[in-house]
Amino acid sequence: MAVRRLGAPEDLETPRPLPARSPVPQRITAVAVTADLSRTAVATAAPWFRELTEVLVLADGVVARLAVPDRREVRDLLFDPGGSALTAMVSGNSICRWPLDGSGERWRLGMAGSGGSLDLPLAQVSVGGPSFATSNAFTRNVVVWDAQTRSVRHDIGKVFKDLDYDDRVEGEGTVALSADGSRLAFCRPRRTFWKEDEGIVVQKVGSGSYAEHRTGIQWANGLAFSPDGAALAVVGARPDQTVATVIDLNDPVGDPEPVVLPTGERVGRINLRPIWCGAEPRVPIVDPDRVTVWNIATASAVLSVDVPGPRIAATLTPDGRTLVIASPDDGVHAHPLP
After folding, report:
1. What is the pLDDT of residues 129-184, one digit of tens each?
2. pLDDT at site 48
3. Which residues have CB under 8 Å from 15's CB, separation 6+?
4. Span between the terminal Cα atoms of the chain, in Å
5. What is the β-pairing status of strands 85-90 and 219-225?
6. For 71, phi and psi rounded to 5 degrees?
7. Which long-range contacts (CB under 8 A, 24 or more apart) does 87-92 make?
8. pLDDT tens across 77-104, in order?
9. Half-sphere exposure of 319 toward its Cβ, with a 13 Å CA cutoff?
10. How far apart, in whole angstroms, are the C-alpha atoms of residue 51 and residue 19?
11. Tell me, what's the pLDDT at 188?
12. Which comes out higher in pLDDT, residue 298 or 239?
């Protein structure tokens, strides 16, 4: 299958540019796509001009523009299965959720444990079954929401509030839900500066019990359950390396050694979204002049695409078979993967 254009550069331009400003967005902060490529969502930003912050939904040649409260920067975007709704994590510890089919009003929620930094880059959303989970590195809280009723199904701040400070479990900003929404995974930060005890916490939604897994990764940027829920893909960073590992949740290794992904630059504190393509976990990583899809288990490159500059965003379709790249200069293109 050939490369497919999902959106032209002019589709991403703002219709109301500021005086003496180009209508072209300065950068793309997030992109999401449905499994059938029928809908694409693109978050644009201009750091010095909040008036140019937008979320665009491209479908059948039509561009819908969604308002972002306070024009804050969108950190992460994700469609519900089938594209019926779009959820965003926004700077300042906020959640936006837009229904795209039928009637319904936009959600605007704050993460439990108010406050938040406008500059904090790592804030993620994950969808599973009838629920979605959100995590923000400022509050170090992870919350699972019922997508229909807006009620909180699980809040780790409340689940672990009675633990002593040294035993308290917090989330660093990375989150994943299993396909049916029954299990939650998140990155737990180190408890002290002098002890490297970071880990991944996995627990049943609604339960206080949990399992903790070591990964050998000091900072996790992305997590993903396998389709059967038996494994967890983890990608993140060490001081000078981009690294990844796969945890067998039924038979975990006590102290695993992650594989090194030879990326152009070490990934910083940025959102990454691993996707399972059958039994193969994949993740797209943006380098200064290319986007590469990596097999997390083998540290091998599946596909590498040259791109014009680092102002772009990339994601995989939910089946892991297509890479989608959004660029202010080139628009949005879908690249089939082997």
Report:
1. 999 999 877 778 899 999 888 889 999 989 988 887 777 788 888 999 999 999 99
2. 57
3. 23
4. 10
5. unpaired
6. 55, 35
7. 87/125, 87/127, 87/132, 87/134, 88/30, 88/43, 88/55, 88/125, 89/123, 89/124, 89/125, 89/134, 89/136, 90/123, 91/116, 91/117, 91/118, 91/119, 91/120, 91/123, 92/116, 92/117, 92/118
8. 999 998 999 999 887 667 888 989 865 5
9. 10
10. 12
11. 86
12. 298
Which residue in this structure is represented by tokens 């102290």?
255
Q: Which of 68, 64, 77 is nearest to 46 (CA)?
A: 68
Q: What DSSP state is assigned to residue 189?
A: P
In the block, tokens 């920067």 appear at: 73
Give the SS3 label for residue 33. Answer: strand
- Those residues whose C-beta lies under 8 Å from the C-beta of residue 73, and which sit 6 or more positions away, are 29, 43, 45, 47, 53, 90, 91, 118
pLDDT band at 15 (very low <50, low <70, confident <90, very high): confident
Query: Residues for the chain: how many in total?
Result: 338
**Residue 292 pLDDT more than 70?**
yes
Q: Is the dihedral of CA 64, 324, 77, 36 positive or negative?
A: positive
What pLDDT score does 25 carry? 75
